Amino acid sequence: MQVRFLRMKPGHGEILLAEGDVDVAGDEQRLVDEFRRQLDEGMWAAVPTTAVGGRREARMVKAFEDVPRDADRVIFFPRAAGGC
To answer: How many domains does one find in the chain?
Structure first.
């Protein structure tokens, strides 16, 4: 199954980081490495889903193993700034 990793960049939309087939060992390892790199840079990861009625939602994932095998993309985005 092909999957694409995209990074949200303010003012630019989605930037393609990596893509590959999770059923091909070399591709899967490259995707795992990129997933970890993005989290190490402080990004959050989410898998887009479609709810009943066509409403678009996303499910947060914290590990590559949490990405559903049938997901076609994972979106990385920066954590919100600020806080106490």
So the answer is: 1
> pLDDT of 11-30, one tens digit each?
888 899 999 999 999 999 99
Residue 5, burial from CB neighbour count under 10 angstroms (0-12, 13-18, 19+): buried
Task: Identify the domain containing residue 34 by its residue range.
Answer: 2-78
Strand locations in the chain (E): 2-9, 13-21, 43-50, 56-61, 73-78
d(CA 50, CA 63): 21
pTM: 0.84
Note the maximum CA span of the chain. 44
